[in-house]
């Protein structure tokens, strides 16, 4: 059969490796404009996923189109390794200007959140001569060996954690199995026994735990953690890959927690959909040695031109404040659904990083089965919206829409989520419908 007779999804199944798929619906794309994805066949679908976060300016934003077109037409090389290029150096200057920090600092560019965290792990171990790390159960820092090794997401249990990593519980106010004080006491005990603090290079922190379930930490917890680490010379690395760059309602999500990180990791939205990440950190770390963390096309002029357009647009369109405003409308709308649907146990997040924790029982807060979560997403797709799920029990609807989401689109999204829940409760989606979308 020639491919012209096959759907895009059928062709995808024939050529794209399963190891690289995380599919939540049959949605197959031929385009995207504004905050809408264009499905094969032309249907427009409201994007509440941001393509797992990077599309913070939506699709086809004029600022990105113009910057990329200009840069690719007159391309200043294809690598930052060998030659400085104007877009990369300008973006680094802008990143240093917007990222709080003291002293001499430098920027490393990568292609993804994974390689940026991977680089941070390696250079911190080398520069501090300390080989232990602290991270969290539920954390997701990447899918390369180094970044996986300091992650604690259940989707990565096929890979052993890095030797010497301490994974702490991330306190969840909705399911307080471990309080903030419990976790701090556990860390103190680790320091006294099996994890000498002077052997710890750094702690990796998500200021809002995304893939682990859209968890906003208890007030003061991360600050308390930072103060403990500071006492032992342990570097503070904040992973802003998914919730940074205005999404949380502030430019940096760590600002909600009063953190003063040594290193900040950017990704996803930085490139506005083009592959781009960055690590910002002190020179004594980032200048550890030449040719230490090389990726040939990292910092290329096209992706970094897109990054420059993203930062300029976040500022010119005041997207951090807009995320706070639209996020509140969206969150309030979802919370209002909770009055009608017992299944909505908690609605949480910051700005336009929003999670809906689905429960089978409001009293026990037992998560719903993953099939229920998957059915709501599948039905949402049928009704015209794209969103995903996260959480260690696959029971948290995740919303990471473009920061350009309008108030009307937020209301439209809430209506679709409500109708999806209604229809799933009415049995309109079968287990068979979602069987191939139960991926993590
Ligand atoms: C806080 C945080 N840090 C780093 C990463 C890794 O970023 P890349 O997937 O760009 O390598 C991620 C990626 N998160 C996953 C990517 C896999 C699919 C599921 N959804 C995510 O957002 C992240 O959330």
Account of the 3D structure:
- Its cofactor is pyridoxal 5'-phosphate.
- One of its GO terms (molecular function) is transaminase activity.
- Belongs to the class-III pyridoxal-phosphate-dependent aminotransferase family.
- Keywords: Aminotransferase, Pyridoxal phosphate, Transferase.
- InterPro entries: Aminotrans_3 (IPR005814), Aminotrans_3_PPA_site (IPR049704), PyrdxlP-dep_Trfase (IPR015424), PyrdxlP-dep_Trfase_major (IPR015421), PyrdxlP-dep_Trfase_small (IPR015422).
- The structure is a single chain.
- The protein folds into two domains: 3-60 and 318-437, Aspartate Aminotransferase, domain 1; 64-316, Type I PLP-dependent aspartate aminotransferase-like (Major domain) (Aspartate Aminotransferase, domain 2), CATH 3.40.640.10.
- A seven-stranded mixed β-sheet has the order 4-10-9-8-7-5-6, with helices on both faces. The chain has a four-stranded mixed β-sheet with strand order 1-2-3-13.
- With 440 residues, the protein is of the alpha/beta class.
- The mean pLDDT is 97.
- Strand 7, helix 7 and strand 8 form a beta-alpha-beta unit.
- Helix content is 35%, strand content 16%.
- The chain is globular and about 60 Å long.
- It binds the ligand Cc1ncc(COP(=O)(O)O)c(/C=N/[C@@H]2CCCCNC2=O)c1O.
- Residues 22, 52-53, 112-114, 117, 140-143, 206, 210-211, 239, 241-242, 267-268 line the site of the ligand Cc1ncc(COP(=O)(O)O)c(/C=N/[C@@H]2CCCCNC2=O)c1O.
């Amino acid at each position: 059969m020639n491919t012209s007779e096959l759907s895009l999804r059928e062709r995808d199944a024939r050529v794209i490796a399963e190891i690289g798929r995380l599919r939540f619906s049959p949605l197959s794309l031929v385009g995207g404009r504004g905050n809408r994805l264009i499905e094969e066949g032309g249907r427009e679908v409201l994007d509440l996923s941001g393509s797992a976060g990077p599309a913070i300016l939506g699709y086809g934003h004029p600022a990105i189109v113009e910057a990329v077109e200009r840069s690719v037409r007159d391309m200043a090389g294809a690598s930052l390794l060998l030659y400085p290029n104007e877009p990369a150096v300008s973006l680094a200057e802008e990143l240093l200007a917007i990222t709080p920090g003291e002293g001499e600092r430098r920027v490393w560019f990568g292609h993804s959140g994974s390689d940026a965290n991977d680089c941070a792990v390696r250079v911190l171990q080398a520069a501090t001569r300390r080989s232990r790390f602290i991270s969290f159960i539920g954390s997701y820092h990447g899918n390369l060996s180094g970044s996986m090794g300091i992650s604690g997401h259940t989707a990565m249990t096929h890979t052993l954690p890095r030797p010497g990593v301490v994974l702490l519980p991330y306190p969840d106010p909705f399911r307080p199995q471990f309080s903030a004080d419990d976790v701090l006491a556990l860390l103190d005990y680790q320091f006294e026994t099996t994890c000498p603090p002077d052997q710890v290079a750094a702690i990796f922190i998500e200021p809002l735990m995304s893939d682990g379930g859209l968890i906003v930490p208890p007030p003061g917890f991360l600050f308390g953690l930072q103060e403990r680490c500071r006492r032992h010379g342990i570097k503070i690395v904040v992973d802003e890959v998914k919730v940074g760059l205005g999404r949380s309602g502030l430019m940096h999500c760590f600002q909600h927690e009063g953190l003063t990180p040594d290193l900040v990791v950017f990704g996803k939205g930085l490139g506005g959909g083009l592959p781009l990440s960055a690590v910002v950190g002190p020179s004594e770390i980032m200048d550890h040695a030449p040719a230490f963390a090389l990726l040939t096309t990292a910092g290329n002029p096209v992706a970094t031109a897109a990054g420059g357009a993203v930062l300029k647009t976040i500022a010119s369109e005041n997207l951090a404040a807009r995320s706070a405003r639209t996020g509140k409308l969206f969150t309030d709308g979802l919370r209002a659904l909770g009055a009608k649907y017992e299944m909505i146990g908690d609605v949480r997040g910051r700005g336009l990083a929003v999670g809906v924790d689905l429960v089978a029982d409001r009293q026990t807060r037992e998560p719903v089965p993953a099939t229920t979560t998957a059915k709501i997403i599948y039905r949402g797709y049928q009704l015209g919206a794209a969103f995903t799920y996260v959480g260690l029990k696959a029971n948290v609807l995740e919303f990471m829409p473009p920061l350009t989401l309008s108030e009307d689109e937020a209301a439209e999204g809430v209506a679709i989520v409500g109708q999806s829940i209604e229809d799933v409760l009415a049995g309109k989606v079968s287990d068979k419908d979602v069987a191939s979308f139960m991926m993590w």
